[in-house]
Amino acid sequence: MIxxxxxxxxxxxxxxxxxxxxxxxxxxxxxxxxxxxxxxxQAARTLLDRQGLYDVPVEPVPGRLTxxxxxxxxxxxxxxxxxxxxxxASLSVACHEVGHAIQHKVHYPMLVLRxxxxxxxxxxxxxxxxxxxxxxLFQALNLIGIGIIFFSAAVAFQVVTLPVEFNAxxxxxxxxxxxxxxxxxxxxxxxxxxxxAALTYVAAALLSLLELIRYILIFVGQSQNSxx
Length: 228
What we know:
Elements: H1 2-29, H2 40-50, E1 58-61, E2 68-70, E3 75-79, H3 80-84, H4 88-106, H5 109-137, H6 141-178, H7 187-227
Parallel strand pairs: 1-3
Antiparallel strand pairs: 2-3
């Protein structure tokens, strides 16, 4: 159990470091103009049109690093620094979100699975903490067991998210190169920006998985004690 707590602490530190790297790499490459001179909005619109996704709008949203693809509204939403920016960072993030729109169009299996899981996970992730808290507080093994099952759904969702994010990034990089948005010497910046973002998902999934293992070990231990 001590080793597990050490691993959790390491994973937590990795998560903090990954978030720091995301902001640091974005800030750094936000200062480097892309040779194409395109804004993030122009790059996203161009890629969407060339993929036949004319009905998918590109919309600016307030905030920083608030970029996302909305599968319900089928819209690419870019933070203002990305939407209006002409930097390597802006193009990288914009094209990554377009990668999700393309996944949606081609029914990328892991994205389809994530969409189907979302309603269940949305409910489970909200209920699980209360079940676990109540179970540990009142020493109720049934509540702990149900809480673990619900928490497992949230962990599974994070694990499924990993290939979705990696695939979107690989699509983005390939399209940016093939469409001439960036040149060879600019690929390093794209890799830095998207690689740091991917690391945050890895760290979050690892931390959640270790937390799940901790809950299971506690549950097993309390089950054994109740039998003695």
